[in-house]
């Protein structure tokens, strides 16, 4: 049976330990801001070790790269010949679709005939990316987005800033007013290991964007997804969830801040959110699954400082070892479109295959507590 949440009057508002939440506007909550420490630069010895490690990895990567060129990436490619038209007549919403994994996912689903809504923070960059996608599809001989072929292949750009609950609400209101259906929601956008910053609503940036922004977005669009059933929700997490932990006493990293740990925490939150949402959606014909894309060459790591002397070696290693965005996007495309996962929900995937999770990512009590506290933080539960 679907989970029936008690009414606001039947349940107390969960307390967020270490965080003071105050109503600042209808439906919005703010956290009292405070300063938090940030890690300093790497010591020279650590830089030397990193340089040696990168050199060894680069040298060993040459042979690996050669083998990879012959063997191939081993990831399903879902946007070719026999799959053409697989997503015809379906509307897909992708957050962060103007670059990296999101752009590659959008391109693949367009080739499958989907109508793609790009939810992006920078509208100008999103429009530029949309123009490039149209040209690429036209040059490849496919349907041009916006052509007179029903709704298939159409590309729509909408402004969405996941660091602002106000923006998320405005975006969802626009979608609900203008879109008659939503077949797939792909929570793809993210921020990676940034310096200590806060969102517009006072949340630590990585937790706020990667988890809370998508939490609110998904909840506000659930009605449309249910009305469009069978429909799917796809959540992009990371293997780095393994190094994270949900500290309910300091969710906002007010006491201390480690950018790597906080990223891992947000990715663990993605998985716990997915599993709890799957439980609540039982019987609705709406499925939700979570994935890791692997290590991909994107601009997600723009906040990471790489010493100048090490940078050429790092670039070589990334070229040899990291996936391209097209390769990294295949699991997102698979979960969004493949008949093989029809009816599958609450699972964790990598390289288009189901994978095992660590016990901490399957803790139902933690998942429920995180859900309840997230409802308070984003203002769903008054």
From TrEMBL:
Span list, region Disordered: 1-22
Recorded superkingdom: Eukaryota
Listed GO MF terms: all-trans-retinol dehydrogenase (NADP+) activity
Chemical reaction(s) catalysed: 9-cis-retinol + NADP(+) = 9-cis-retinal + NADPH + H(+); 11-cis-retinol + NADP(+) = 11-cis-retinal + NADPH + H(+); all-trans-retinol + NADP(+) = all-trans-retinal + NADPH + H(+)
Class in the EC hierarchy, top level: oxidoreductase
Alphabetical UniProt keywords: Lipid metabolism, Membrane, NADP, Oxidoreductase, Transmembrane, Transmembrane helix
Keyword Cell membrane applies: no
UniProt KW Oxidoreductase keyword: yes
Protein name (database record): Retinol dehydrogenase 14
Family assignment from sequence similarity: Belongs to the short-chain dehydrogenases/reductases (SDR) family.
EC number, UniProt record: 1.1.1.300
InterPro entries listed in its UniProt record: NAD(P)-bd_dom_sf (IPR036291), SDR_fam (IPR002347)
Transmembrane segments: 42-67
